[in-house]
Amino acid sequence: MLPFLAQADMTPPVALLGYVNDDPARAAFWPFAVFSPEFVALRWAARAGAAARFVDLPAGVVLAGERDGPEDELRDDPLGVLAQAAGFADFERWWESLVEARLSPSPLVGEGGVGGPPGEAAFDVFAAVNEAMRAVRADALGPVGREAQREAFMRQGIRAALKEGFARVAVVCGAWHAPALDVTAFPVKADAALLKGLPKAKVTLTWVPWTHGRLSVASGYGAGVRSPGYYEHLFTSRGAVAERWFARVARLLRAERLEASSASVIEATRLANALAALRGRALPGLEELNEAALSVFGWDGDLPLRLIEERLVVGEALGAVPDGVPTVPLARDVARQQKSLRLKVLPEKLDLELDLRSDNDLARSVLFHRLNLLGVPWAKPRGSGGLGTFREGWQLRWRPEFSVRLVEASRLGQTVRDAATASALESARGAGTLAELTGLLEVLRLADLPGALPVTLAALDERSALGADVPDVLRALPPLARLARYGDVRGRGPAVAGGEEVAPLETFRALLTRAAVGLPLAGVGL
Questions:
Q1: What pLDDT score was predicted for residue 281?
Q2: At 247, which CATH number?
Q3: Are residues 33 and 96 in the same domain?
Q4: Is residue 342 part of a domain?
Q5: 3-state SS string for 190-214
């Protein structure tokens, strides 16, 4: 997986996806942004030819065991106390001021951005952080369970690298773990005992696109970064962080037809710098930028601030992975159809209106219906504005977790058509009511899946013969009538399965007869 990081078309945010081969629903993501230290280090190593390896617990161990327990939350309070002692509201703001918001490019970054002072002084911050973490850990409960196993595995990895002859070993990890990486302070036998007998599952790894929204902890599916858009700006800006930030704010607000003059940009920058100076900080942080934006741009309402939060502070950037990244055939088929049908894969909502008289739009509609049948609701139906039966309205929004759902659905088939047909057959055989079969019948018509029609029609006929209520039988008639009609707006004509024409008209007549016979009796009780 690591060589892909050196390729130019690997564009963060991306995530390393691991899933259990026999149970793809058991999966985990490890997200990386352009500012992630792990991503920067791994990409530098891949391009520089330096040896690099993962040193945390393998994905097979993580996915084979239980989820992390409550002990992983124990370190939050001590770090919060440390930040408060330094005069900050939370740990993230303290870390931003101490490490992230540095004026000079760091020799460790290598690709632009901001970092610590150049030269050997760059390591002074790390030494200070290590000492602070050592003091905090001394007063906190020691690691147990999965946390202890992780740190033991890290130490074993460092020992293995030293044994191979590497004289200089750099480890990229969370600050909390730094004191635990002193291999001379922990017995080898104790670490080996912690790691003995760990369960391990057979897993597959691949890279998938990720989004800034999913990096945010607010999404519930993220990597613990509350302001990914801001940190990308901080990392990629060479100086003039506040000036460049408010220039972006002005462009955003003007695009939304809100007032944002050049004078306002200058005033907001001055105010942010003044706030930072009053608080004894070298650079304005996100707190100062937000307060300056509130004073200058938010005087007549909160809309500008909400736009800044959604579009800039968090953002909705969608990453990309190279074409050669290994994936399941079903996911490749989806990507192929997205490209051939000229469909944009975006993290934000996109409204799309289809004209079903167009072959391309008809193929798009079929793809959307098939993916929904597979539990991948990339496109959701919306009203077409009453413009006729030949139009469909859709709202598109791609979510990273759809990658896992495609892996799960790959057991059903290697193409979207085959997998959707198999999914429909499973639904038909497991349907418990006539209403479920009726709904499925309509989906099959819209998704152009004639291969599942014979089984569905047979199940519908059998279910109606077992004493279905007359209202249910009546509700089943319209979709059957639409299916039986020739030359509909989709222009497909009669359905064909296995080389033979499917005749829903017979099922329609049988259900119509049952409804006609039962209707007088059903009407007696009204």
A1: 82
A2: 1.10.8
A3: yes
A4: yes
A5: HHHHHHCCCCCCCEEEEEEECEHHH
Adjacent-strand bridge partners of 17: 29, 206
Q: Record the tokens describing residue 316, joined without a space.
A: 């909705």
Same domain, 161 and 183: yes
Q: What is the pLDDT of residue 143?
A: 82
Name the domain boundary from 166, 181, 215. Answer: 215
The separation between CA 51 and the C-alpha centre of its own chain, rounded to angstroms, equals 29
* Tens digits of residue pLDDT in 278-325: 988 888 989 999 999 999 998 777 899 999 999 999 988 889 999 889
Q: Are residues 304 and 344 in the same domain?
A: no
Dihedral sign (CA 237, 240, 241, 242): negative
- Are 210 and 242 part of one and the same domain? no
Instruction: Judge if 211 and 177 occupy the same domain.
Output: yes
Helix (H) or strand (E) holding 494: none
**Would 224 be classed as within a structural domain?**
no
- Say if 275 falls within a structural domain: yes
Three-state secondary structure readout of 269-334? HHHHHHHHHHCCCCCCCHHHHHHHHHHHHCCCCCHHHHHHHHHHHHCCCECECCCCCCCCHHHHHH
| Dihedral over alpha carbons 450, 365, 488, 436 (to 10 degrees) | 50
Please indicate, yes or no, whether residues 25 and 174 belong to a single structural domain of this protein: yes
**112 vs 176: CA distance, rounded Å:** 26
Number of domains in the chain: 4
Q: What is the pLDDT of residue 307?
A: 94
pLDDT digits (tens, 9 = 90+) for 482-495: 766 643 445 554 55
Q: What is the model's pLDDT at position 526?
A: 62
Q: Which of 215, 248, 275 is the endpoint of a domain?
A: 215
What domain range includes position 165? 2-69+77-106+120-215
Residue 448: both structure tokens together: 């152009």
User: What is the total residue count of the chain?
Assistant: 526
Q: Which of 52, 134, 50, 130 is nearest to 98 (CA)?
A: 130
Strands 391-396 and 496-497: unpaired
pTM above 0.85, yes or no: no
- Nearest 5°: phi and psi at 481? -65, -40
Distance CA 399, CA 346 (A): 9
Looking at residue 9, its amino acid is D
- Minimal CA–CA distance to 424: which of 404, 444, 407? 444
Q: Does residue 137 share a domain with residue 25?
A: yes
What angle do helix axes 434-447 and 359-373 make, rounded to 10 degrees? Answer: 150
Show the low-confidence residues of the chain (pLDDT under 50).
69-76, 103-118, 218-222, 486-489, 493, 496-501
* Strand, coil or helix: 118: coil
- Structural domain contains residue 292: yes
Query: 281 near 102, Cβ under 8 Å?
Result: no
